[in-house]
Structure prediction request, 258 residues.
Amino acid sequence: MNRPLVIGNWKMNLDYVEAVHLVQQLGVVLQNKPLEHVDVVVVPPFVDLRSVTSVVESERISLEVGAQHASAHDAGAHTGEVSVSMLQRLNVQWVLVGHSERRAMYAMTDDVVAHTLRAVVRAGLQAVLCVGEELSVREAGTPREFVTAQLHAALAGVEEKSRPLITIAYEPVWAIGTGLTASSEQVRDMTEHIRTVAASLSLENTRVLYGGSVNADNAAALLSEGRVDGFLVGGASLKADSFLAIAQAANDCYDGKR
Ligand code: 13P
Prediction:
């Protein structure tokens, strides 16, 4: 199996003071009890990034930092956007691309997702491509077809050297922030499908994460029965104890218990 990856997407929560506080809390626990078998990433709002990367670097906390979005453009007249090179300058290593909230609320089309993904990996940053169907699609019985189309639109033609920089997160929209977690069978079925589609696009051994109401209680089962390589966590990443419990579950799973 791939080394697990647990990412905390803070969404539009925590100002920079609160962000520093949470990262320091995470740092204290990780220093006392290092998680050797899992990569842990936090993804704060843009305005927190400078403070968070400074704390992570100065206190040598074993966390990496990501951004929730980036512009597909390099620079120029794009009011409100942030470029990949600006993120790079802050030592941000990861970028979420095409989160369902950006697709649904900020008109991020498949085409924009594809261009953004290319901008991120061209700069050598790690991209987390988010895919997932809405409830109506699942009820219509076509979630696989829907996700296949999203994957093809984003990944077809990605240069060979960029492929190792890509992680895929399956986040069914109906499970995000609803407390309705997809069942382990649904997760396993879709992540296996995603691996097959990714392989057909020459992405071998890509990490496939699950996101959607993950918490400390359901993480272990989703890892072992859902066969995911980790999680993209929203609400439960806003508190140090719940986020680290999820990371610990991933750590233990990889450490011979899976
Ligand atoms: P929740 O964990 O709050 O459901 O959010 C999932 C998500 O959208 C992470 O990107």
In short: The domain at 69-254 is CATH 3.20.20.70 (TIM Barrel). The radius of gyration is 17 Å. The first helix runs from residue 16 to 32. The CA atoms of residues 224 and 257 lie 9 Å apart.
